[in-house]
Specification:
alpha/beta, globular, 2-enoyl-CoA Hydratase, Chain A, domain 1, 2 domains
Length: 276
């Protein structure tokens, strides 16, 4: 992607067959993500939730890397106004930056009402790794690797890393990844349960497309509510989880797809889900 490209070129977007493809396209910086790119991805995920024509989302990238973290060289706009004599940074600035930035981006994936698949073509480091781990399904190319790079820079993990990893691999494995910062090859990520499938690089797009097409043909509202239930279960007790389940069932039974699913079963035919 040439320098000076528009934000629409830096984050490509298309909808085909009910699948929204969101693609980071700055291979010259290994898809390090800028604030403008981040905000566009957040907007596109929100639009995917609201668009009944979108029934699954794929988050991918061009080039040799998926996303190598935040682009520290990107323009972050004018700094906030400061009173005379005030320091350049005051308490609260960093926390606000994270809330409005990396945390909001990861939350947009977790909160998207449609299933999101990560197509990890290469290195996913820092917030790039967390983008993948926040997705509902992760498909990685054989040469891909995941790196909790923060400790290498003397930093604390951001973008929900210390929230996501223990829930995905357990506390001790999470600490190993976060405290040592070693490269994690795709095959090892598969073994740990961080990745659903590993495929040869030339087959990545087709493999992801097949999964996305299956999801896009499914009962969209039921899938979204199932995603919500699983995510909620990680922080709720039994009473809360059962209450959430009852609510999800109540909401889903009012959808056309739920009625179609039951009807097709009784009529002994394949269901034709419409997404609402």
């Amino acid at each position: 992607m040439a320098e000076g490209a528009s934000i629409e070129e830096q984050v490509r977007h298309k909808v085909e067959g009910g699948v929204a493809w969101i693609t980071l396209d700055r291979p010259e910086v290994k898809n390090a993500i800028s604030p403008d790119q981040r905000n566009r991805v957040i907007t596109l995920l929100g639009e995917a939730s609201a668009d009944v024509g979108v029934r699954a989302v794929v988050l991918g990238a061009t080039g040799s890397a998926f996303c190598t973290g935040a682009d520290l060289r990107a323009d972050r706009g004018a700094p906030p106004a400061r009173a005379d004599g005030a320091p350049e940074r005051v308490v609260g600035d960093v926390a606000r930056l994270l809330r409005e930035g990396a945390q909001r981006l990861v939350a947009a994936i977790l909160d998207c009402e449609k299933p999101v698949i990560a197509a990890v073509n290469g290195t996913a480091a820092g917030i790039g790794a967390h983008l993948a781990f926040a997705c509902d399904l992760v498909v990685a190319a054989e040469g891909a690797r995941f790196i909790e790079v923060f400790v290498r820079r003397g930093l604390v993990p951001d973008g929900g890393g210390a929230y996501l990893l223990p829930r995905l691999v357990g506390v001790h494995r999470a600490k190993e990844l976060l405290l040592l910062g070693d490269d994690l090859p795709a095959a090892d990520a598969l073994r740990l349960g961080l990745v659903n499938r590993v495929v040869p690089a030339p087959e990545l797009e087709a493999a992801v497309g097949e999964l996305a097409a299956r999801l896009a043909a499914g009962p969209t509202r039921a899938l979204g509510l199932t995603k919500w239930l699983v995510n909620r279960s990680l922080e709720s007790d039994r009473a809360g989880a059962f209450a959430d389940e009852a609510l999800a069932q109540e909401l889903n039974m009012g959808t056309a797809d739920a009625n179609e699913g039951v009807r097709s079963f009784l009529e002994r035919r394949e269901p034709a889900y419409r997404g609402w």
